[in-house]
Design brief:
mainly alpha, 182 residues, globular
Amino acid sequence: MGAWISFVPLMVLLLAAAAMDLRSRRIPNWLTLTVMGTGLAQAALPWTGITLWQSFAGLALGFALMFALFVLGALGGGDVKLMAGVGAWVGAWPVLLVFAGASIVGMLIVLAQCAARGRLMVLMRNTGLLVLQLLHIRALGVQSVAESGSSCRSVDKPLPYAVAVLIATALVLAMPHRLPWS
């Protein structure tokens, strides 16, 4: 339970990011940079459970995991920076778990949005088309796949991915035996 206390600032920042993302579908730079900066700062303290090296590795991995999705137009830049910030707080292995969890939670949110609007079949068709294009990315080029990905959106508003990141981070932190420094 004591380990959770050190992550209260992260959870407060993620809660703010989720609220802003829900309201405007944007996460401001000042907030994502604060998440990154506080993650690196807490790692520099001698009594934390993560080293500065682990924090930088988590930041880099969090950024790299999301950047490919950003290039394809699946996520915004704020989502990329937010995951990098989470990585700065938790390190490389846990940010990989957060990424996987956020992907699942995000998928569930999209399915719920589409079901509520009666657009599940549109989502399935567009997903199939995008997968086919990804399989042929060398022949089509990244730009072509990115353009078709953004035109295949099956919901009226983009996914508030910060909500998925908040939920996944809480789940990963609730399982301290999964964290390498526990």
